[in-house]
Amino acid sequence: MKGDAGGTSIFTVYEAASQEGWVFLMYRAIDSFPRWRSYFYFITLIFFLAWLVKNVFIAVIIETFAEIRVQFQQMWGSRSSTTSTATTQMFHEDAAGGWQLVAVDVNKPQGRAPACLQKMMRSSVFHMFILSMVAVDVIVAASNYYKGENFKRQYDEFYLAEVAFTVLFDLEALLKIWCLGFTGYISSSLHKFELLLVIGTTLHIYPDLYHSQFTYFQVLRVVRLIKISPALEDFVYKIFGPGKKLGSLVVFTASLLIVMSAISLQMFCFVEELDRFTTFPRAFMSMFQILTQEGWVDVMDQTLNAVGHMWAPVVAIYFILYHLFATLILLSLFVAVILDNLELDEDLKKLKQLKQSEANADTKEKLPLRLRIFEKFPNRPQMVKISKLPSDFTVPKIRESFMKQFIDRQQQDTSCLLRRLPSASSSSCDHSKRSAIEENKYIDQKLRKSVFSIRARNLLEKETAINKILRACTRQRMLSGSFEGQPAKERSILSVQHHIRQERRSLRHGSNSQRISRGKSLETLTQDHSNTVRYRNAQREDSEIKMIQEKKEQAEMKRKVQEEELRENHPYFDKPLFIVGREHRFRNFCRVVVRARFNASKTDPVTGAVKNTKYHQLYDLLGLVTYLDWVMIIVTICSCISMMFESPFRRVMHAPTLQIAEYVFVIFMSIELNLKIMADGLFFTPTAVIRDFGGVMDIFIYLVSLIFLCWMPQNVPAKSGAQLLMVLRCLRPLRIFKLVPQMRKVVRELFSGFKEIFLVSILLLTLMLVFASFGVQLFAGKLAKCNDPHIISREDCHGIFRINVSVSKNLNLKLRPGEKKPGFWVPRVWANPRNFNFDNVGNAMLALFEVLSLKGWVEVRDVIIHRVGPIHGIYIHVFVFLGCMIGLTLFVGVVIANFNENKGTALLTVDQRRWEDLKSRLKIAQPLHLPPRPDNDGFRAKMYDITQHPFFKRTIAVLVLAQSVLLSVKWDAADPVTVPLATMSVVFTFIFVLEVTMKIIAMSPSGFWQSRRNRYDLLVTSLGVIWVILHFALLNAYTYMMGACVIVFRFFSICGKHVTLKMLLLTVVVSMYKSFFIIVGMFLLLLCYAFAGVVLFGTVKYGENINRHANFSSAGKAITVLFRIVTGEDWNKIMHDCMVQPPFCTPDNSTYWKTDCGNYAGALMYFCSFYVIIAYIMLNLLVAIIVENFSLFYSTEEDQLLSYNDLRHFQIIWNMVDDKREGVIPTFRVKFLLRLLRGRLEVDLDKDKLLFKHMCYEMERLHNGGDVTFHDVLSMLSYRSVDIRKSLQLEELLAREQLEYTIEEEVAKQTIRMWLKKCLKRIRAKQQQSCSIIHSLRESQQQELSRFLNPPSIETTQPSEDMNAINQDNSAQPETSSQQQLLSPTLSDRGGYRQDSADAGKPQRKFGQWRLPSAPKPISHSVSSVNLRFGGRSTMKSVVCKMNPMSDAASCGSEVKKWWTRQLTVESDESGEDLLDI
Is residue 132 a contact partner of residue 228, using CB atoms and an 8 Å limit? Predict the structure, then answer.
């Protein structure tokens, strides 16, 4: 193994990561090191480098290409439909009597044919006849095969059939030209292709040109069959229709190959003993071989050995750079182009979202067919007879459901009457009434309509009352944000989005006439009109969305009603096995057992919110499935572990210990199925066991296991029913897919996009059929050769010859004089190559399928060139290029597109996708685990500044890299260089100990422990200290190995110190987390195929690739072989080794474990199905996940809704508010957090006080005044920072708009309520003050009464000194106008109290001036009016509190009533400046 030096090791790792030749390196390592170490190293290397990191390149190219696609939109052109601009569409009646839209070319010239022929030519019958003839021609061509050398091939039945078909299609072309005219005929691209085929096939039937290169035209007729399926035709047009991008990429690839071939020719043509670059065709084939990765290591190794050690590093870098660009960038570009072709327009995405919602609503309305079968039977409701009534008259039978409902209601009413607590009785009675209403469908609909109408009227009244003022306020605020186009301060995104929403609501609900009458310019009016139209369209979309939601609700209601009707009218409905009653005790017991699951979620008794426990992730895992399913998962895993110990030499039939697990599995599964069937039913119940494919698979696995356990055959012949039963028993691990919900989701992701995968498979099969038919006609019988290399002709290939045996290529045996090399005699045989031939279409398609996987195509190329001719090498190169560059990348693109469609991201617009990425990125974001800087300027503060300085961090990163460089030389205990290297590593370790110590001092131990990165650094540093101690104590090979591991662990810490590296690391980590169940699914499939491989090929003899390392003798070795096949490493050679048949093996008809023969049909289905499912589908799901997660972290600042700087700033502010670092803060602290935000998330209280109130109230409403988490506040800010109309999907948009409207309404009510309370508080304060003043004047009142009794009446004025001082101070203040009408005074307005209009005209009296009445009145009816002027306030009537204690509240209520009456009559043109506090 090349692991002695650092450069050679990197070179070897890159070779292994390319999945070419890695398995042979692993086998060499197994022979030299422990087996587990080799397996662990190479499997993890393939998983991380070849599957994860390599696919990150595809994600990078896809995202970059998408950005360039947007920038060069005009150059590429927009995505067009299948109908050209020169055509029009009209309705046409089809054969079934329906109508469909067909494209009709109105500008197409007509031919001179009669009308009857033209009508016949356009008919669907003629079209189907031609396509059927094409299909027959393809079948005839595929039936051709090699008949031997002596057979005359020119005039056989296949040639005559070809002549007949050629004449038929020539007549078809002439008929179309006659009917359409030549100009009209060639105007269609399809007719041009047909004309080309007609000319080529006509030349092909000429005897001298038959079975020549013109055969291409014959086999290309199969392409016309694409017209049979409209879905296939549309899919093909989607991929290949916009040919600019794909064609340009093909031209670029060809140009790159030509340029690199010319450069390589000039570089290596002079090298001796190297024939790969002697001519340009050889150089082109070598560079194309590197592009396909098949055997590229051999090309590089031969070149390196030829150029010598001096130039070997330069040549290696040259080939690696070319391979890196060709395989990681160029192939990824093909995937990006195909994904871009499959992309839809933005408008079409929104339309499909609506259509998909409607389709989901329609599907929910219908019951499954297994339940609708009860509708075919007559209704037989279950009746009961009432016996507790007088027998004077006959009582008819009554439905049991009606009586049960009546009894339930009566019991509920009785319980309501028996309860004496008012709250309890009212709530329970209301609950019974509500349940009765819900059972009646029609009453429920009427109530909904009535509630909706009442709510609509209330909303209309509220909107008409405040909409105009809100619009005026919004317009004023927007104008106040800037002055003459020069803003004083950049507005935050929160403010911008808030004003956009306010303006949108004002435009939606306002009137156009009032806006036009403002005297605006024509451009402004046009802009307002366009905005209004746009918002009206948005309102229309809202109504459509609401209709879809109502349709969904109605569909669910209809479905429930149908189930209830079936349950009522059919006594056997919802009865398990038609025996157990619906409410039987045994069934209820089974339901409890089946549905019992772990639930540790604790709810707050006050708010009802779910509390986050310490081990909530573990609790969520335990509550993932029910207890019964957990038991079956454990039993299934134990059974699979037991099957791992089975082999052809230790069979379950003859091993009692293995039979125990078999009995346990069958018994437990019997109990499980019986419980589920008794609880949910078998088939004809709503929640039946067999209601989907998973239930069918469970029953199938159970029956197979039960039959095998009962049978337990002692002798199992090969290719028998017993062996098939053992193979079917290997499907047992698939039970995990049914038991775990996430695994079922993986299966849905695999099979939901089956249609597109099926279309791609048809395209690839069509491509293979074209080239297979061509290969049969050109290469049939020409690839055979004598196994004796000295014999050329077939006539001389007879007898025997001696073949030498070579143990190794590099082993030179020293022979004595006259001694021969070891060998043996073999007979001469004239035969085809061992692994492939083109004698018939079946063998040819198998060979091309192997070539399509890019395995073994170099051997096919060399054999064709050597035995047929160099010119025929073009055949295999064209097929590999089409299959590799387009076919395989098409598989990748379709799987990614289907994955996005299943995830719901395929139909998302650009803004919606950015919003989804933002939500996913915010879920990953966490509070900064960084304690604040110490307050003082002491030692800790200085340490904090040093450790947080960028120079300190960069220095540590450089030191980590420097320590990693020490591993470039192998640490060997016997090498004297190892000691200085280890000593330097010890010095670095002490430096890192000093770094950790400084951070602990600066942050305190508790603050240091908060960060995960700090914990990892502490762990690695502790391991380093332990290594230092062991190193100086032991000083052996194990300590050196431990030191190397510590350095490797520390190297990973550098990934979090750079933004780009952190982004890529997050992409890989998140992809691993999200693809966990996909990886588990791959392993389960791998396990099933491994068990089946042990049964089918466990005793196959060793061959070219089946050897002591790679075989199926046990399940463990079978898993390693299948993992090798997943990487594509010589999988086809292993398949051919498992196809070995007599006379090359020893058959045995009694038992399969006594023969060493293979199974041809079994190997063909086994290996091909495994390779397609795993390599073409499952691995591409990993690519899709990586592409999805890469888009979360890879986005420019322009594309991000919230940038990294915004998130970082929020994290810093959160740390300032969350001083305890608990991750939660009280709700009242949110307002402090919002005030501290700056930049794009800033909320200006002078301009956006209303937005501030909305945000605070949203937190209070959603969390009921409890604690809020980091993600709660961040989610609220994210919603407020985006345009929800563009970014949110339909249902989420409606819910968000409803929430925001409710928040605005509640905030407005709350503000008005607070203002009213303050007004009442002012009134009461004044009245209390007046009462205190009057109380102080009671003493003087006695004098007034005495004077009142004496005639004549006099007027006295006795102002006190204090009141005169107050009067003098207030006289300087300006009086407020009593006629000023304001809607709602702000909280900051301290002088805005209004005078009642009735008191405005009354004269004001100074304090102490009392005018006595002219006539005496009784004391009990006397009321003293005191006119006060206090603090510039308006006058008001004060009443003596003790004489009339209710006057205070009455006067306050009258004042509020009068104020509210004035507000209802306020004009719409009033200014809204006073609403800033609402």
Answer: no
pLDDT of residue 607: 53
Strands (E), 1093-1248: 1224-1226
**pLDDT tens digits, one per residue of 760-786:** 888 888 889 989 999 998 898 889 999
> How far is the C-alpha of 333 from the C-alpha of 336, rounded, in Å?
5
Which comes out higher in pLDDT, residue 491 or 512?
Answer: 491
Mean pLDDT of 1117-1130: 92
Residue pair 322/290 in contact by the 8 Å Cβ criterion:
yes
Query: What are the Cα distances from residue 1225, in Å, to 390, 609, 1263?
Result: 70, 15, 12
How far apart are the C-alpha atoms of 44 and 13, rounded to whole Å?
Answer: 12
Q: Which residues pair with 1357 in a beta bridge?
A: 1409
Amino acid at 297: V
Alpha helices in 627-785 (DSSP H): 627-644, 656-680, 693-711, 721-729, 735-739, 741-751, 754-779
What is the structure's pLDDT at 574? 86
Give the pLDDT band (50/70/90) at residue 1013.
Answer: confident
Provide the token pair at 1170. 């495994």
**Model's pTM, two decimal places?**
0.76
Instruction: For residue 664, name the pLDDT band (cuts at 50, 70, 90).
Output: very high
In this structure, the dihedral spanned by the alpha carbons of residues 1208, 1210, 1211 and 1216, taken in order and rounded to 10 degrees, is 130
- Give the C-alpha separation, 953 to 998, whole Å: 13
pLDDT at residue 1091 greater than cutoff 90:
yes
Burial (CB count within 10 angstroms: exposed 0-12, middle 13-18, buried 19+), residue 684: buried
Cβ-based burial of 164 (10 A; exposed 0-12, middle 13-18, buried ≥19)? middle
For residues 101-136, b (16+ Cβ closer than 10 Å) or e, as one string? eeeeeeebeebebeeeebeebeeeebeeebeebbee
pLDDT digits (tens, 9 = 90+) for 1366-1424: 444 444 344 333 333 333 333 333 343 333 433 444 444 333 333 333 334 333 333 33
Question: What's the half-sphere exposure (Cβ side, CA atoms, 13 Å) at 477?
Answer: 27
Residue with tokens 């090349």: 2
- The β-bridge partners of 647 are 650
Kindly state the percentage of the chain with pLDDT values over 90.
Answer: 23
- pLDDT over threshold 90, residue 692: no
Residue of 252 and 444 predicted with greater confidence: 252
- Whether 420 shows a pLDDT value over 90: the answer reads no
DSSP string, 507-546: HHHS-HHHHHTT---HHHHHHHHHHHHHHHHHHHHHHHHH
Per DSSP, 1392 falls in state -
Region for residue 1088 given its phi and psi (left: phi exceeds 0; alpha: psi -120 to 50; beta: otherwise): alpha
Q: Which two tokens stand for residue 1251?
A: 């937005």
pLDDT at 825 over 80: yes
Distance CA 491, CA 210 (A): 78
Residue with tokens 């005699």: 825
Residue 1193 pLDDT exceeds 70 = no
Cα torsion 1061, 1067, 1069, 1074 to 10°: value is 180
Alpha-carbon span 978 to 974, nearest angstrom? 8
With beta carbons less than 8 A apart as the criterion, state whether 619 and 601 touch. Answer: yes
Contact present, 203 and 112 (Cβ < 8 Å): no
Integer CA distances (angstroms), 630 to 572, 615, 643, 743, 1448, in order: 32, 19, 20, 14, 71
Contacts 24+ apart (CB under 8 A), 255-262: 256/326, 256/330, 257/284, 257/287, 257/288, 257/291, 258/284, 260/287, 260/322, 261/286, 261/287
- 806-840 burial code (b ≥16 CB/10 A, e <16): eeeeeeeeeeeeeeeeeeeeeebebebeebbbbbb
